[in-house]
Write a structure and sequence with these properties.
This protein has two domains: 3-123 and 200-218, Rossmann fold, CATH 3.40.50; 131-196, 2-Layer Sandwich (Alpha-Beta Plaits), CATH 3.30.70. The strands form three sheets. A six-stranded mixed beta sheet has the order 2-1-3-6-12-13. The protein starts with a helix and ends with a strand. It is built from seven helices and 13 strands. The chain is an alpha/beta fold and 220 residues long. Helix 1 packs across helix 2 (30-39). Ribulose-5-phosphate (5RP) binds at residues 27-31, 81-84, 94-100, 103.
């Protein structure tokens, strides 16, 4: 099965979680793009969706799903998104698509976080992908130096501005043996907007796609 077919399969599996729940949260990325495509057939079940990026808002709008402000709809029943890496415990690295801040906000404001990944993204220890960190532009060098002190090798994602007007540093080489502790620590660095570690608010359900179909992992 090619990568695109695996994404479609896992996206179809995610549809089972939207129920008749009014308003859902929708993440960002190529797997989410498949999910939005699949969602068009069920849009009558939704009152609308909260989007984690301008790109997702555009895609939702194109299939006729109303895009709502999170402030207007309060806690959501379900948030569906992808990830760049995941452990079997639902701890994630996200932000490859640069939408980590809004993704983290919507995940925090949702009762259930359903995360769709390919089997190749399932890892024992996070970090091979690198860790995206959104930073306030004037803090770019400061945050880079702070990550170097912790063994990281930060690379500025040049020519890329987030939907919030900020920069992204992709940091490789960090030792992510305790994702929650590192998330807390990096969050303390002045100028960090969001760390792409989703360990405190991790996924509740992982849908893992691959050759042999979709495995559902429920995190308790
Ligand atoms: C965007 C993300 C995405 O969920 C992540 O990059 C995975 O994307 P894709 O489904 O394209 O592999 O965190 O900020």
């Amino acid at each position: 099965m090619d990568e695109q077919a695996a994404k479609r399969k896992v996206a179809l599996a995610a549809l089972e979680f939207i129920g008749h729940c009014g308003v859902i949260g929708v993440g960002t990325g190529t797997t989410v793009a498949c999910f939005i495509e699949a969602l068009s057939g069920l849009k009558h079940r939704l009152d609308g969706a909260v989007a984690s990026s301008d790109d997702t808002a555009r895609r939702l709008g194109e299939i006729g799903i109303r895009v709502l402000d999170l402030n207007a709809v309060g806690p959501l029943a379900v948030y569906v998104d992808g990830a760049d890496e995941s452990t079997r415990h639902g701890q994630l690295v996200k932000g490859g698509g640069g939408a980590l801040t809004r993704e983290k906000i919507i995940a925090a404001a949702s009762k259930r976080f359903v995360c769709m990944i390919h089997r190749a993204k399932l890892v024992d220890v996070l970090g091979d992908f690198g860790l995206p960190i959104e930073v306030i532009p004037m803090a770019r060098s400061h945050v880079a130096r702070e990550t170097r002190k912790r063994g990281g090798d930060p690379v500025w994602r040049k020519d890329y501005i987030t939907d919030n007007g900020n920069y992204i540093l992709d940091v490789r080489g960090l030792d992510i043996v305790d994702p929650s502790a590192l998330e807390t620590e990096l969050n303390q660095i002045a100028g960090v907007v969001t760390v792409g570690l989703f360990a405190h608010r991790r996924a509740d359900t992982l849908l893992v796609g691959g050759e042999s179909g979709v495995e559902t992992i429920t995190i308790t």
